[in-house]
Fold this protein.
Amino acid sequence: MENPEQISFLEPIAPPLVKIIGVGNAGITMLGRLDPAEFSVAQLAAINTDSSGLGTCPAPVKIHLENKLLRGLGSGGDPDRGRALAEEQFSTLKTACEGASVVFILAGLGGGAGSGISPILAKAAREAGALVLAFVTQPFECEGNRRESQAQQSLEQLKSAADGVICLPSQRIFKLIDENTSLLETFRVTGGLLVEAVRGVWHLLMRPGLIQVHFGDLCALLRDRHAESAFAFVEATGAGRSREVVENILSHPLLDEGRALAESSAVLVSLTAGNDLSMAEINRVVDQVKRQCTTAQIIMGAALDPELKDKLCVTVIAARQDSASAGTKILTETRTAGPSTSTREVVVARTPRTRKSGNKPVQTQLPLTIVSKGRFDKSEPTKHNGEDLDVPTFIRRGVPLN
Amino acid sequence: MFDDSSIIAGLEIGTSKICVVVGEQGADGALNIIGLGQSRSRGVRKGEIIDPAQVEEDLRAAMFEAEQMADVEIRSVYLGVSGGHIRGFNNRGVHPVVSADREITPDDVEDVVKNAKAINLPAENTVIHAVRQHFYVDGQDGVTNPVGMLGARLEVDMHVIHGNANRLQNAIRLVRATSLEVDDVVFNGIASSLALLTNEQKELGALVIDVGGGTTEFVVYSNGVIRHSGVLAVGGDHVSNDLAYGLKVPLSRAEKMKIEYGAAFVNDAVKGQTISITNELGLELKRINHEHLQRIMALRLEELFELIAQDLERAGLADYLRAGVLLCGGGSRVPGIVKVAENVFQMNVTAGHACAISGLTAALDQPEFATAIGLVKFGSLKNRQRTDRPFLKGLFGRLLQRS
C-alpha cells in the first residue's frame, strides 16, 4: 500500500488518490467500461462474492469475499449474506481502501453483493479515512418487488454510510431508449450513464479547474439532500454549443425534462471544454440553469481540457431536499467552505441520527387522486417553472372547496 | 374604380373564434373599419392548430361573412399568430464606427442592426419580429436616430420575438390553402397593443394583456418602444376546464356558467348561494355552490396575473409602466377582472378599447376584436411606410398596372 504523503511528494500538485471500487457483477461491468487511459491515475478494484465475475475483470485488485456457507455460489441475491460476509471481512475491505483520499463505489443495487457489501464498504472506506461517493443503479421495475425493496433498503444504508450517493433509477432509462433496444444494449446504456457520472465527477477532481469545484462542495451538495439526486451529462460541439447544451439539459429525460431542476434544492453545474471556452458561454449555461431553479443553491465549476477541442461537456447534478433533513441544511451550507476534515466531523456527528431516520420503515402512499387535465389531456402541457398550468389552480394550491 | 391596395384585412385564428377584420385606408392614411367576420373556432387548442381541416372550414365561414359585410374581395391578410412556443427577448448589437471623422453613417446603422439580429436561435425556431428599440452612441442612452452624430461605438437594442418555424408555417399554409395571400405574420400581442395604445401611452410605458381563449399574450411598451413580450398558454379555456373539473359538470355547461355567473373575485353577495342546473325540461339536476364557482375562477385569473407580474419583475420593468395596465381579449369581460389585476399589479388597470383607429363603430369596439383590429392597423402602418418611398411606390404602381 502506498501512503498519501509519498504520493504528494512525487507529484507537486497532488491530485487526490482515488480508488474506484466496483461491487457485485453490475459494479464490475461498469468498472470494466471505464476507459483505462482516462483513469490511469486511479486505482481500480473489484469486489464480488462470485469468483466467475471477478475472473473477467480487468481491475488489478480483486477481492473475493467467500466463506464456506456460500460454497462458491455467490450470495444468491440475498443482501443479508453479502452484508454478513462483508462485516466478517471488514478488515480486508478497510485495508483495500487504505491510503485513498477518495473512494468511488460503483454498484448495481437490488442483488446480493451490490446491496449487501456497498454500505459496509462505504463504512470501511470512511474508517480508513477516505471520502466516499457511491454511484449506484436501482433495478428496473420489472425485476420485481423484492429486488426493489432490497435496493431501497440498501440505498438508505448507503446514504447514511457514504458522503454522497448518486443514484440512477434504471426505470428512467426507458425514456432514453426506443422499443427495439435489446436487453444487452439497455444494460449498456444504464451502465454507460453511470460511467458518465463517474467521469463527470472524476473530471471535477482531476482537471485543472478554471473555477474549481472542491470535492467538499460536491459532498456537501449530495449529503443529506439525496432524497433523490438526478444527474445529466451532455455535450455539444460547434458554434451554438452553449445553446445546444442548455437545450439538451432542459430536455434531458433523467432530469425530467428540466423539472428536476425546478424541484431541486442544490445544483452542481460543471463545464469542461477545450481552450476556447469563453466566459460568455459559462455564463449562458449557468444562467439558463439558474433560471430553472431559482431557489436552489448553485455550485458551478469550469475546467479546460485541450483534447476536447471545440466540444463542450456539461455535468449537472441536481439534489432534491429531503423533507426530513430540511432542518440540517443550513448547518451543511455553512461548513461547505471549510476544509474537508471539518465537513467530515459534521457527518460523523450526525450519522447516527440520519441512520435512525433512514432505516425507519416509511408508509408509502398510493397516488389516489389522479388529476385529470380535462380537455388539455392530450395537448402539450403548459409548463412554467416546473408547474403544470393545465392542472386547475385550486388543486395545485390545495385550496379546499367544501 | 376601387383601388384594391387600400383594403387591409387582419385574420386571427384564435382558440375560441376565428376573426377577420377588414379595413379601408384612405389616401391620407386614415384607417376605417368596414367589415368584420367571425366564426367559432373548433380546431385550435392553446392558440395552435390541431385540426387543419376544421380550421379551414371555420376560416372560410369567417372570410365569407367579412367579405359580405365589407362588400369587397379579400385577397391577402395579415395573419396573427400565438402559442406557448413564442418567446421574446432583448438583444444588443454592437458596431465600431470606423470612418476617419467618426461620423455615423446610414451604413453604420444598417450594420449595427444586422449585428443585433444575428442571434443564436434553436435550429427549429424562426424570428417573427425584430423591433428596434434605442441606439447607444458611446454609451449615451436613448438615441433614436444616430445618423450624423459623432461616436466611436454604436450599439442598438432589439426586441426579438421568435417561435417554432413549423408551427408558424402550419398557420400560413392553411391560409394559403384557402387561396389567400399572407402579407405578413404578426404576433398577436403586438397587434393588440397597436389597437389599444396611443402613442402617448407607449411613451409613458404600458402593459397590454390579451386574455384569449387558449393563450394570454402580454407586451410591455416603454419610451415608445417594445420592451418585453411573452405568451402564457393559459386562457379562458383553462377557466372553463377548472370549473368543469372542480364543480363536476360537463365542459360546455362550465363554459355557460362561466359567462353567466362568473367573476374574477369572490363576491360577498354570493356566499352561501347556490345555482341550480336544470335539464331541458326544467327539472333540477344538480346544485352548484356559487361561491366555489367564483373561487375557482378567481384563483386561476389571479395566478395568471401573478405569473405575468413575476415575469415583469424579473425583467425589471414593473416601475416603468406609468400608463398602467390595459386588458383586452375575451377574458377581460369577466366581471371584476380589473379589480383583481389592480390588486396584483398595484397600479392603474383599465379595460382597453381599440381607440387608435378612427371611424370605428361602437359595435366593433369589443375587447375580443382588439387583436384583429390591431392586425389591420399593423397593415396600415406598413402601407404608410411603403408609400413614404416614392420610388418603390412608382415601381409597385407600374407593376400593378402591368399585371
